[in-house]
Amino acid sequence: xxxxxxxxxxxxxxxxxxxxxxxxxxxxxxxxxxxxxxxxxxxxxxxxxxxxxxxxxxxxxxxxxxxxxxxxxxxxxxxxxxxxxxxxxxxxxxxxxxxxxxxxxxxxxxxxxxxxxxxxxxxxxxxxxxxxxxxxxxxxxxxxxxxxxxxxxxxxxxxxxxxxxxxxxxxxxxxxxxxxxxxxxxxxxxxxxxxxx
Length: 197
Known about the structure:
Elements: H1 18-41, H2 47-63, H3 73-110, H4 119-129, H5 132-142, H6 148-155, H7 159-182
Helix pairs in contact: 1-2, 1-3, 2-3, 4-7, 5-7, 6-7
């Protein structure tokens, strides 16, 4: 017989039978899933986060099933667990946001766009004028050092298709470079009296 002191919450005895344990959990889940989901939805910014909170709350309930009180007190216990899960979620979001801000600042300082002059400016302008797919292909070769087999794997195409695409991208880049050399260079003379040269 269970003895309960005054003011204590009634706890179920540890369930020795795994089937009884599962039935008890399913009953708690069935009765309380909707209210706990509503609690989480009102306190998170999207449904995915709310679903994560509900899942973590009921995982805790399963692990600590012997601590879950009976009756209506079970919902209050679950609200308490969900509240702590949300607190952990908010801490994690704050840490991610702080890390992203720190990385953004670091990248702004260390990874500034290069300023090209002379012939490099023409090459950079020709490269920038290409379509994104051509730039990606040429970058996979020049920067990542991939061969045709590697490019085919990244793009999800055959080696032959990668070879043809790469050949076309190189041809378009050569044409863009040639057009850079055919264009007249802008004058760098200073503007006098506010007039254009």
